[in-house]
Each structure stands twice: as C-alpha cells, then as structure tokens.
Write the structure tokens for this entry.
Amino acid sequence: MIKKRIRRSFATLIVLSMLAGAASAQGYPNRLIKFVHGFPPGGNIDIIARLLANEMAKGLGQSIIVEPKVGTAGALAAEAVARSEPDGYTLLVLPSAHPAHGALAKTVNYKVVDDFDWISVATFYPFLICVRKDSPFKTLKDLIDAARKNPGALKYGSAGVGSILHTTVELIASETKTKYLHVPYRGEIPAITGVLQGDVDFIAVTTGPISERVRAGEFRALGVTSKARWRDFPDVPTVAEQGIAGFEVISWTGLAGPARMPASVVERLNAELRRAIATPDVKSKLEAMGGDARGTTPSEMRALVASQFALWTKLAKEANISID
C-alpha cells in the first residue's frame, strides 16, 4: 500500500513538472536572457554574440546580455551552459572550436553533442592558408613540397593548442603525409603578427581578421579551405583543387542551449535567430567579417557538430594529438 502511494506521488510530481514546464514554455520569454561564450571581449565570437543579442532581443521582447566566460576554446562556457537550467534563459554562443576541442582534450566535463540542444548556426566562414607577402611559397603545393623535403622545418602559428586553426593544418599534414612545427599563440591576432614578423612561415586563419590585409598586400593567400572558392577571393584556389581531394574545413558560429529545453522554446529561438541574421544590418555586418550569414534547423546544426566531432576525433587518434 505504501509503495503504491509512493508511486502515485512520484507520478503526480512528474505530471506537475511537465505541466509547469509547458506553462513556462508558453510564456517564454518573460525575463532576461543570457548569451554566454568562452572568448575574450572584442573578439570575433563576442562581436557576433552582441550582433545576435541586440537584434534577437527586439523579436523576443526581452533584454539579452552577453557574458564572456573565457576559457580554453570555450570549454568553461560550454560546461557552465550544459549544467544550467534547460529553460531557454542561459544560452551558448559557440564556434566550430567546440567539437575540435572536445575531440582533442583529454578531459571534457560535458558531452560534446548530447549535453546541448542545438538551435541554429548564424554564420559560416572558411579559413585561408596565408604566408607573408615576401614568402618564397607562391602556392600551397610549394609549401607542401618544401615540407616533404624537410619534415618539421616549416613553422605555422595558431590561436592555441586544440584551436581549429591548429587542427586544420594538422589535417592538411595528415592528408599529405607531411610534418610541420606548431607554434601556439594566445589568440588569432598574435599568430597573424607572428607570420608578419617572420617568426612562423604560415597560418590557417579565419577570413575576418585577414581579408583586408590580403587585399592590402601584407599577406598572400595560398588556399581556401571551403569546398568551393570563396566569394571574396575568387582567384584563390581551394585546398581540394591543389591535390587534397575532398578537403573541406568550414568554421561557423551558432547558438545552443542545455539539453532538454522545451521544443517550443528551441523553435522560437531558431526562428528569431534566422530572422535576426536576415535583417540587412546584421547580415551586412556578418558578411563584412567574411562570413556567410546562413541559418540551419536544429537537426542540421546537431548533425554538423556531430560530423566535425567525428572528424577531429579521427585526426586526434591518427596524428596522436591531445590536450592536457
């Protein structure tokens, strides 16, 4: 008899919890929303987060604050959001470094794919393989051939161990059976400066901070990592065109929340993000940063993260790369 009462009470609690969640979702949002990200203020991710927050707040009818929670490749921010209440009020603005870091790190305190509800990607952008203007390397083939003659002699810079700038070059190395010396910097801008000062020979770099400097002649772009040539640099061949068939690495920035958010909240956020990036002001600013302002469905974003996590996990094993 007592066991039956306990079971009934437990079932009642579950029903009440579901009803409360449904009621909360119907009134969403009714208070402040927080966008968390794991990168320094003023950087690429921070700028995108604020663009999205400012425009999405208009459609949602609630203020959205942006909170940088700086940590390795965004891991601290991801962990904080994964452990937050799945009510749609604490969300994560994250880049493609999320699956890359999750694949390479020895310890990650969350499940890279399953601990999140995926809302939508906001912008896609490729990487450019760049050298200084006076570099002897005129093509990516020149660089690869030099690496084959002298394994480990050529140096490349990145935004840090496990950053997608790091893993992109290591993927090229794996595909071409070449070896390079990795020089990690504390961010993308210092790594770009390292190339300019001649401390490293080349870099894989996002289009945003390097495009104008390529146009100005400070740097030479040897290749682009997208499947097709990039609209801003139609004369720069893809990596795939230069002997690495099927090669593609596309970076992105998007929005996610903790797993088990109400479906109606995910749908509302997806619709608002897609509306936001379609507005002329936001779209033009994202494009000025070198991005392609393009949304996805939640399932498409989840598939993207899962596929990239699988890619970098494979590379980590084959190239024996890991982060302590």
Summary: The domain at 126-242 is CATH 3.40.190.10 (D-Maltodextrin-Binding Protein; domain 2). Confidence is low (pLDDT under 50) at residues 13-23.
